[in-house]
Specification:
This protein has 205 residues and is of the alpha+beta class. The chain folds into 2 domains: 78 residues, 3-Layer(aba) Sandwich (Glutaredoxin); 108 residues, Glutathione S-transferase Yfyf (Class Pi), Chain A, domain 2, CATH 1.20.1050.10. 54% of the residues lie in helices and 8% in strands. The protein has 9 helices and 4 strands, in the order βαβαββααααααα. Strands 2-1-3-4 form a 4-stranded mixed sheet, covered by helices on one side. Strand 1, helix 1 and strand 2 form a beta-alpha-beta unit. The longest helix is centred in the middle third of the chain and has 31 residues. Glutathione binds next to helix 3.
């Protein structure tokens, strides 16, 4: 059975879409909007009781949480490539994935919500500024780590890079001029053909 990926590309579903493209996996894309009422209906809630996208169904394995999905796809289909073989590197990939979810995403999201996503009357500039300052601290940490290597785990692009760069999708705007190496790394990730193919899906209905 073909891998099914639920969620429009202009949502966190971009993460599993990008992973599937990296791995060359055939998939069916079910373009559910994050505001679609179906997300709160029993059929969808039986797959993800949180009522959120993305979800995947991989031959009967139903999984939610975008970064768990990307990590699963890498581990299952990308051994020795997207998923490193050494246990130490796998541990570092997990470290970066959790860092992306718990350290980087909350402030980056706060900044984005209060500058672009929320309707203007709901935006609060103090929250936007605080989110930006905190997110920039995280980018500066990446700047240090990337001072001596092209990718987070070394010389090769891995799931750690996909997860962190996808979460920090707006890294160049967050960094400004403060973190040139992090910006270059982000470009290296986002100019990969698989990333381009996945992000191009945002322009399609
Ligand atoms: N931690 C979850 C977050 C998923 C999430 O918040 N998805 C948003 C779209 S990016 C959503 O479905 N929102 C619908 C809603 O809030 O009702 C993940 O990474 O998969």
């Amino acid at each position: 059975m073909t891998l099914k990926i639920y969620g429009i590309a202009a949502s966190r579903a971009i993460r599993p879409l990008w992973a599937a493209e990296e791995l060359g996996l055939p998939y069916e894309h079910i373009k559910l909007h994050y505001h679609a009422p179906e997300l709160k209906q029993p059929a969808y809630l039986s797959m993800n009781p949180n009522g959120l996208v993305p979800v995947i169904d991989d031959n009967g394995l139903v999984l939610y949480e975008s970064l768990a999905i990307t990590s699963y796809l890498a581990q299952r289909y990308g051994q020795g490539g997207l998923w490193p073989t050494e246990v130490e590197q796998q541990a570092r990939a997990l470290q970066w994935t959790l860092w992306a979810a718990t350290e980087a995403e909350p402030p980056a999201r706060q900044w984005f919500q209060h500058t672009q996503f929320l309707p203007e009357p709901q935006r609060q500039s103090a929250l936007a500024e605080a989110g930006l300052a905190k997110a920039r601290e995280k980018v500066l940490l990446l700047e240090q780590v990337l001072s001596d290597r092209p990718f987070l785990l070394g010389n090769e692009f891995t799931i750690a890079d996909l997860n962190v760069s996808a979460v920090l999708q707006r890294l160049p705007a967050i960094a400004g001029d403060s973190a040139p190496k992090a910006v270059q790394w982000h470009q290296r990730c986002f100019t990969r053909p698989a990333a381009q193919r996945a992000f191009a899906l945002r322009d399609k209905a």
